[in-house]
Amino acid sequence: MNTLSYVTVDVFTSSRFEGNPLAVISDARGLSDAAMQKIATEFNYSEVTFVLPPENPENSARVRIFTPTMEIPFAGHPNVGTAFVLGQQAEIFGKPVGEKLRFEEKAGIVEVGLNRSSGRVTSAAIRAPQPLTIGDTITRETIAGCISLDPGVIATTSHAPVFASVGLNFAVAELNGLGALAAARPNLAGFQAAAGRQTTSGHDFSLFVYVRTSENPWHIRARMFAPLDNVPEDPATGSASAALAAYIVSLAPDADMNVGITIEQGVEMGRRSIIALDVVKAGGVVTDVMISGSCVPVMRGEITLHD
After folding, report:
1. What is the pLDDT of residues 156-196, one digit of tens each?
2. Which CATH architecture has domain 133-291?
3. Among 64, 87, 235, 275, whose CB has the most other CB atoms within 10 angstroms?
């Protein structure tokens, strides 16, 4: 009987059973692509990570990220959680674990900093692997059809709904208040129609909706829906948070900024998550986005591969 060890952690939280759960296979050598996908589907978390030796020995590891339906090039909470898990180890594939890690991913190199308290890793910060890119705008009717709302609650004062990415593509849209955010319900037919109209490259149509106030514009409440990836709602989405944070900073009139942004997500699911972002803008261009958060270990066990 062949078995494979795994660890699960809750990411972007300091409280167990909140945040976004992640399963980490810290040594995935010998697994086929098909086996990785089957394991990710079995967990049915928003993502599962599979850690392999790096192709370049200067890097720490190669990390592959699978949703229940597909492999994706980058995601926030899988990187934060994987770094947290690997940071508990003395070595990664024979190399000592330092304070900084470098992950090889399909989107590029992801740089990670580990934060420790009393010698133990408590949180991690990752740098978005790609610069901000903005895609096509999306109609209010399309957004409303995805989440069962009236188009009138889609706010367009700051920006129209649009595709944004710092490594993984999301539709982002602002709503006009917490009432609309709470009322949002994913409509599979709406998402299928939206994906059919999508021309921007990326994975299936995934929607990140948010609310912010003029009194506290850098504290944001958000929800993320991706039913086409078998993720009806995600409690914490670092890659979407980073794309949104970079985008709204890019829209600000100041040419040079260094902004700390907090995104609170998962509240409506009972899995409150806190995602911290640091965005640097220089000469009118966003040059750096850091995503950070705490993690809590939850489970460990073994997967039976063959009888």
Report:
1. 999 999 999 999 999 999 999 999 999 999 999 999 999 98
2. Roll (3.10)
3. 275
Give the residue from 49, 68, 96 showing the smallest Cα distance to 229. Answer: 68
- Provide the Cα torsion 53, 56, 61, 64; round to 10°: -80
Element (H, E) at 164: strand 162-165
Residues 81/49, Cβ–Cβ less than 8 Å: yes
C-alpha span between 219 and 248 (Å, rounded) = 12
Closest residue by Cα to residue 194 from 148, 143, 136: 143
Fold classification of 2-126+294-306 (topology level):
Diaminopimelate Epimerase; Chain A, domain 1 (3.10.310)
3-class SS at 54? coil
Determine the Cα–Cα distance for residues 280 and 259; give it in Å rounded to an integer.
7
pTM for the whole structure: 0.95
What are the backbone angles phi and psi of residue 76, rounded to the nearest 5°?
-80, -60
| Portions of the chain given CATH number 3.10.310.10 | 2-126+294-306, 133-291
Lookup result for tokens 């049915």? 44
Q: How confident is the model at residue 118 (pLDDT cuts 50, 70, 90)?
A: confident
- What is the model's pLDDT at position 106? 96
SS3 168: coil
List residues with catalytic annotation: 47
